Amino acid sequence: MIKPYLMFNRECNEAFKLYLEAFNGEIVAMQKYGDIPSSPEFPISESDKDLVLHSEIKLTESGSLLGSDSNRVSSDSEKVVICVEPDSEESAIKAWNILKDGGTIYMDLQPTFFAKLHGSVKDKFGVTWMFTVS
């Protein structure tokens, strides 16, 4: 099994809420930095306690995403795309409309010679999604 792990800069909780809404998903696990036992070797500031240490959300019957907040500044990666194959055109359109808000459409969600619907969008968090409805 392969599960994509997304690293965010203080936006994991907000991004995962959006993805849960888009795909009618569910939270499998979520730990916050504030859940870490207090230790002088790894101090957690008050402003960081609500950040996501580790999370898993289930988006489809067989698909999950993992993610967390990091203190590293990272640029968007154009090499990684989350491929989604919704079970209906309606569910694809719903998720697409949520993820495109504030994002960048690379290929509009539309019928193609190989699929009922296909498209690609980068959401407002810099994550690129490819949709295909067979």
Describe the protein in words.
With 134 residues, this protein is α/β, with parallel strands linked by helices. The protein folds into two domains: 73 residues, Signal recognition particle alu RNA binding heterodimer, srp9/1 (2-Layer Sandwich), CATH 3.30.720; 60 residues, Signal recognition particle alu RNA binding heterodimer, srp9/1. Helix content is 18%, strand content 37%. It is built from two helices and eight strands, in the order E-H-E-E-E-E-H-E-E-E. A four-stranded mixed sheet has the order 1-4-3-2, covered by helices on one side. Strands 5-8-7-6 form a four-stranded mixed sheet, with helices on one face. Helix 1 packs antiparallel against helix 2. The longest helix is centred in the N-terminal third of the chain and has 12 residues. The chain starts with a strand and ends with a strand. The mean pLDDT is 93.
Give a quick precis of the structure.
The chain is an alpha/beta fold and 134 residues long. It has two helices and eight strands; from the N terminus they run βαββββαβββ.
Biggest sheet strand line-up? 1-4-3-2
What can be said about the biggest beta sheet? Answer: 4 strands, mixed
Name the structural class: alpha/beta
Number of strands: 8
Q: What is the domain total for the residues?
A: 2
Q: What is the general shape?
A: elongated
CATH topology of the largest domain: Signal recognition particle alu RNA binding heterodimer, srp9/1
Rg over C-alpha atoms, rounded to the nearest angstrom? 16 Å
The CATH architecture category of the largest domain equals 2-Layer Sandwich
Secondary-structure element series: EHEEEEHEEE
Task: Write down the overall mean pLDDT.
Answer: 93
DSSP summary: helix tally: 2
The percent range for strand residues is 35-45%
Distance between the termini: 22 Å
